[in-house]
Amino acid sequence: MSLLRKEHSVLPGFGLSLGFTLAYLGLIVLVPLSAAFLKTAGMSWDEFVAAVASPRVMAAYRLSFFASLAAATVNACFGLIVAWVLVRYTFPGKRIVDALVDLPFALPTAVAGIALTAIYAKNGWLGQWLEPHGVKVAFTEIGVFVALTFVGLPFVVRTLQPVLEELEPEIEEASASLGANRWQTISRVLLPELFPALLTGFALSFARALGEYGSVVFISGNMPMRTEIVPLLIITKLEQYDYRGATAIAVVMLTASFALLLLINLLQKWSRRHHRV
User: Fold this and answer.
1) pTM of the prediction?
2) pLDDT (tens digit, 9 = 90+) per residue, 166-202?
3) CA angle 98-116-95, nearest 5°?
């Protein structure tokens, strides 16, 4: 009769690791989020609706969500091109360009907002050429979009780069040798491999844009019903000691953001499964 031996790992086992994981996530993520929901639970339904569905709040929702989605979509398209150039080509100054991609990570958001405002203002480097042609960026919805695009680009590029590095150029050459044109190679060979990573970068860029405050607050002008974003509205209510109203708006944002990110993750899982089949 052979004795069953249990192999022990040098690292902590599943139970201990899972316990630390749940405890850490509970303290850092779940407890603060639960506090927001508990604070809102003390409101009646009429109070909750009045806090989260006023015209000013609805205008902030529309601007925040649509600008974030637009910025994440643009970053997904151009971030793919930037990642492709950095991985597939060698050119003078490549390391400098690669380092510039991380600049929105290192730059304080307030500094980014001031810089963008200075560039796109009426007397700025670009604004003085755009405004005579009827294109006003600073203190408009376009300025919010520009700021959110600026802060979200690195998430897409850095998510796609490792995947592109694993894709050998021989795959593209094999596709061409079998008679595929460039569009067929991109749509049938490259995009199926890159799509899950592209979705991940899109989700990260969207989530970053949705919660952005520092870079937007300067270039937007913070005009109610026009350029006021949800994070700024939450800060405004906190300064007015309207804690319930602020947490109610935060709960709506959390719920909507979680639903969108869950949908993106399900789509990502489906794409991986469909690609394997």
Assistant:
1) 0.85
2) 888 778 778 878 877 888 888 788 888 888 889 889 9
3) 10
